[in-house]
């Protein structure tokens, strides 16, 4: 079944919960919503995914807060959201996509790499510095953030820094 993407105009409780599943600190989500454009993915009018597209200058678009509802994970919806973001960015002449994730976020990290992203930066202690409470994933306290990028809109395959 096809996913229908709708620009966020209001944040329902279900959408808020979904966004918080990608980033547990609402102030970060709110900042991204203020700086960018939120998109929600619906399958048969059921909320299944969400993301916020945040511009960084004229050439880079960040795919922030990408979340897929737990009962819909591992069905290609994260990749579909990345594909939507890539198409949206190309139409607006961005030259690269950026994502950031934790070093302990193994599922998202693998998915991003399968989508063509490459690690371009490690930000040590990002999560211990920018979050009020420790985040534990896969039994490990999350400390460092990975920034990944990919060139879009051209035949370039390497990361653009």
TrEMBL record:
CDD domains: NAT_SF. GO terms for molecular function: N-acetyltransferase activity. Coiled coil: none annotated. Residues 3-136 form the N-acetyltransferase domain. InterPro entries: Acyl_CoA_acyltransferase (IPR016181), GNAT_dom (IPR000182), NAT_camello-type (IPR050769). Keywords: Transferase. The keyword Transferase applies. The keyword Cell membrane does not apply. PANTHER family: GNAT FAMILY N-ACETYLTRANSFERASE, LD18367P. This is GNAT family N-acetyltransferase. It comes from Candidatus Levilactobacillus faecigallinarum.
């Amino acid at each position: 079944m096809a996913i229908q993407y709708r620009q966020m105009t209001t944040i329902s409780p279900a959408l808020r919960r979904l966004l918080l599943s990608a980033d547990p600190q609402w102030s970060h989500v709110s900042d991204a919503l203020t700086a960018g454009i939120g998109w929600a993915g619906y399958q048969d009018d059921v909320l299944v995914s969400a993301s916020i597209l945040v511009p960084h200058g004229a050439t880079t678009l960040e795919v922030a807060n990408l979340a897929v509802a737990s009962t819909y994970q591992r069905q290609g919806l994260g990749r579909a959201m990345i594909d939507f973001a890539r198409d949206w960015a190309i139409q607006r002449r961005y030259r690269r996509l950026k994502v950031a994730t934790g070093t302990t976020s193994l599922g998202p990290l693998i998915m991003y790499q399968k989508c063509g992203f490459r690690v371009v930066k490690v930000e040590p202690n990002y999560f211990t510095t920018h979050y009020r409470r420790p985040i534990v994933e896969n039994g490990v306290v999350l400390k460092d953030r990975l920034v990944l990028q990919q060139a879009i809109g051209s035949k370039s395959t390497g990361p653009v820094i």
